[in-house]
Amino acid sequence: MLALTRRKGEALVVNNNIEITVLEIRGDQIKIGISAPREVPIYRKEVYLQIQEENKAALESQRAEKLREIF
User: Fold this and answer.
1) pLDDT value of residue 61
2) Best exposed site among 6, 14, 28, 63 by fewest CB in 10 Å?
3) Which pLDDT does position 69 carry in this prediction?
């Protein structure tokens, strides 16, 4: 993991087309802004993990259904 120090108003660039800017710092919370192409999905980590779990469950369900069709 790369750890960087940024102040309010400062930014960093990822992969030449994603810019992450520190918008506000209030206590232990930081508000960030992300500028990225529309085709780049951006999720909060807890939402991303939930999507991954749902996709995994759907895939397992499809596999089980195909096995029932075969036998």
Assistant:
1) 87
2) 28
3) 78
Identify the DSSP state of 17: T
Tokens linked to 14: 């990822």
Give the CA distances from residue 47 to residues 27, 38, 41, 50, in Å, rounded to whole numbers and listed in that order: 24, 18, 12, 5
User: pLDDT tens, 19-40?
Assistant: 999 999 999 999 999 999 999 9
Q: Which residue has the tokens 């919370």?
A: 29
Give the pTM: 0.74
Please give the single-letter amino acid code of residue 42: I
What residue has token string 């759907």? 58
Measure the CA–CA gap between 4 and 14, rounded to whole angstroms.
13
